Amino acid sequence: MTQLTKYIIALTNLYGIAHKDKVLEIYNNQNDEKISIEDVEGYFQKLPQALENNFTEIYEDYFVKESIIENDEFDELMAKKANKPYYVPEQEELLKYVEDNYFEKSREYKALYDFIKKNFYKGDDYKTQILAEDLQGICQFTFGMQLIFECINNRGIIFDDQEQAKEVVYMVMNLSNNVRLWENNGHTPHEMHERYAKPNLKPLPEKPFEFGESNVIDFKTRKKVGRNDPCPCGSGKKYKKCCFGKDEGW
User: What is the pLDDT, as a whole number, of residue 230?
Assistant: First the structure.
């Protein structure tokens, strides 16, 4: 298998969808021997058997994971990925994604693994690995707490008490926030929030919200309604004696 073939497979596994230009960019950034776009486009003339064996297909100008085409998810996934930055690991880590089932074992994954091994399987590494990897897969591709509990229940696991169940939920939620997603171009939800969403969050107001004040706007005057102003509902009563508090769910 050529180095370029490995990159195509790895990037498709990591991103789900990899444009030919992105393959060229990442390959040339990580290898001394450069290639041209013609080298990449050569794969579009005849799909190599190595790509077929690794569930990678061609669609328009993209290398695409076979399951995305089969489930008709290409357009939906592209919409989710739009304008998001790419996570590009170092070459050694990236090429591990040539293995179809490879995933980065995060700190949160290891914590869940250790918990399962200690509390459910009493040190059985094989059973622990199977369950932990299944939970990882659910978090990565079809997350839902119902699926999580079905996965656990199907193995005959019974929680000791409600606190243990809550602890598992907490650990699974932590795991789901730290898995690398196709829709995030390889970034985890936590990374997207910390690096790209959090810096753009609006700062809190200098004056904190006070529940004793009105925060209602009269759309006729475009002014904030005071407690002693006529109620904007038209009842003729003062706002404090009429709708004050109702609009805030009191």
Answer: 72
User: Which candidate, 194, 28, 52, 175, places its Cα nearest to that of 116?
Assistant: 175
* Residue 81 CB-half CA count within 13 A: 21
SS3 content of the chain, % helix, strand, coil (to 5): 55, 5, 40
Residue 95: CB atoms within 10 A of its CB come to 17
Distance CA 106, CA 123 (A): 20
Taking the complete model, does pTM exceed 0.85, yes or no? no
- Closest-CA residue to 86 (of 42, 26, 41): 26
Which letter does DSSP use for residue 16 in this model?
Answer: S
Q: Residue 103 and residue 179: Cα distance in Å, rounded? A: 8
Which helix (H) or strand (E) segment holds residue 217: the answer is: strand 217-218
Q: What is the pLDDT of residues 116-148, one digit of tens each?
A: 999 999 889 999 999 999 999 999 988 788 899
Handedness of CA 42, 44, 48, 54 (dihedral sign): positive
